[in-house]
Write a structure and sequence with these properties.
CATH topology of the largest domain: L-2-Hydroxyisocaproate Dehydrogenase, Chain A, domain 2
EC number: 1.1.1.37
CATH architecture of the largest domain: Alpha-Beta Complex
Strand content: 15-25%
Strand order of the largest sheet: 3-2-1-4-5-6
Number of strands: 14
Radius of gyration: 19 Å
Largest sheet: 6 strands, parallel
CATH class of the largest domain: Alpha Beta
GO molecular function: L-malate dehydrogenase (NAD+) activity
Organism: Micromonas commoda (strain RCC299 / NOUM17 / CCMP2709)
Distance between the termini: 48 Å
Order of helices and strands: EHEHEHEHEHEHEEEEEHHHHHEEEH
Pfam families: Ldh_1_C, Ldh_1_N
Bound molecules: nicotinamide-adenine-dinucleotide, (2S)-2-hydroxybutanedioic acid
Shape: globular
Helix content: 40-55%
Structural class: alpha/beta
InterPro entries: L-lactate/malate_DH (IPR001557), Lactate/malate_DH_C (IPR022383), Lactate/malate_DH_N (IPR001236), Lactate_DH/Glyco_Ohase_4_C (IPR015955), Malate_DH_AS (IPR001252), Malate_DH_NAD-dep_euk (IPR011274), Malate_DH_type2 (IPR010945), NAD(P)-bd_dom_sf (IPR036291)
Mean pLDDT: 96
Low-confidence stretches: none
CATH superfamily of the largest domain: Lactate dehydrogenase/glycoside hydrolase, family 4, C-terminal
């Protein structure tokens, strides 16, 4: 019999939480045979809504679910957690500067880091979704030194899936046959969606599309701006696609990427050649394969000059965010 896995979702009363919890309970994250203990965390003002979500999950009578804990107590939520999905955060309000949002969120992630390392299982796997996702994950990792660095990641799988979706739309090849796009860098509009190594139906995407102006222009900006486009269309940020991508991220990390394919994950750069020259210690999205519950950066991909400058630009933004976060923490 498979032992239950304890999954925590923070920000569980929010939009992504509402889309994600049912997917986890149906086995989309850990497979159809893995029983789940679900910990849902939110903050006191959202406590009633959180209880409502928990009531609905009970009412759905998911066979995989062994227990649901819905709480506004951080320590209780973190207890014994094997997979932590960090969705909770402070949203950008009208008139707020990037720095104001960053200040709120780095404070939250510093506090949650301590609770996770004290109360979660020692090999907890963490994926940070809340924006700024890469920098929140970096802060969490820095303030939870007992959690192995490689166990803290951030979500860029949504961007990766968006890139696959755009190639599929353009070529008519089903998305299941589009492989090996890459998201480099930050989960922000500076990210670099790269199709130089991608295939569709087994053929090179560059050759099949045969339109470099599109692939270097509109394709890149569409993927970079997709989050903003969803907000403009829905008046809320993406939720079902974010939730689905979280399940993809954790499933591939735990169960492995399919043979011959890679995915994109925000992970700590090792620096040097192994990190494609990205400064060591930045939380940067790379192409990765996963096996045995561990990710590895795909090595040896050829990088042309155009890619190099786009990869460096998004690294520069992450460096700026890191400096800003450190300054904000020092002033706390
Ligand atoms: P939402 O506002 O609907 O929900 C956020 C929830 O977090 C709220 O219920 C809020 O009460 C809760 N929260 C706030 N502070 C908390 C704390 N300290 N501890 C626990 N919970 C806390 O937002 P959403 O649409 O669900 O999006 C959540 C985050 O995910 C946002 O930051 C959004 O920008 C980000 N996002 C990231 C990606 C990605 O691909 N990385 C994609 C979509 C959205
Ligand atoms: C997304 O990519 O959909 C979100 O990160 C957008 C946002 O700002 O919440």
């Amino acid at each position: 019999m498979v032992s239950p896995v304890t999954v925590m979702i923070t920000g569980a009363a929010g939009q992504i939480g509402y889309a994600l919890a049912p997917q986890v309970c149906r086995g989309a994250m850990l497979g159809p045979d893995t029983p789940i203990i679900l910990h849902l965390l939110d903050i006191a003002p959202a406590e009633t809504a959180l209880k409502g979500v928990a009531m609905e999950l009970v009412d759905a009578a998911y066979p995989l679910v062994k227990k649901i804990v819905a709480t506004v107590n951080l320590e209780e939520a973190c207890k014994g957690v094997d997979v932590a999905v960090m969705v909770g955060g402070f949203p950008r309000g009208p008139g707020m500067e990037r720095k104001d949002v960053m200040a709120k969120n780095v404070a939250i992630y510093k506090g949650q880091a301590s609770a996770l390392q004290e109360h979660a299982s020692p090999d907890v796997k963490v994926v940070v979704v809340a924006n700024p996702a890469n920098t929140n994950a970096l802060i969490l990792s820095n303030y939870a030194p007992k959690i192995p660095k490689e166990n803290v990641t951030c979500l860029t799988r949504l961007d990766h899936n968006r890139a696959l979706g755009q190639v599929s739309e353009r070529t008519g090849v089903p998305v299941s046959d589009v492989k090996n796009c890459i998201i480099w860098g930050n989960h922000s509009s500076t990210q670099y969606p790269d199709v130089n190594h991608a295939t569709a139906g087994g053929k090179s995407v560059r050759e099949l599309v045969n339109d470099d102006e599109y692939l270097n222009g509109e394709f890149v900006t569409t993927v970079q701006q997709r989050g903003a486009a969803i907000i403009a269309a829905r008046k809320f940020s993406s939720a079902l696609s974010a939730a689905s991508s979280v399940c993809d991220h954790v499933r591939d990390w735990v169960h492995g990427t399919p043979e011959g394919t890679w995915t994109s994950m925000g992970v700590i750069s090792p620096g040097g050649d192994a990190g494609y020259g990205v400064e060591a210690g930045l939380m940067y999205s790379f192409p990765v394969t996963c096996a045995g519950g561990k990710w590895s950066i795909v090595q040896g991909l050829a990088i042309d000059d155009r890619s190099r400058s786009l990869m460096d630009a998004t690294a520069a933004e992450l460096k700026e965010e890191k400096t800003m976060a450190e300054e904000l923490i020092a002033a706390m």
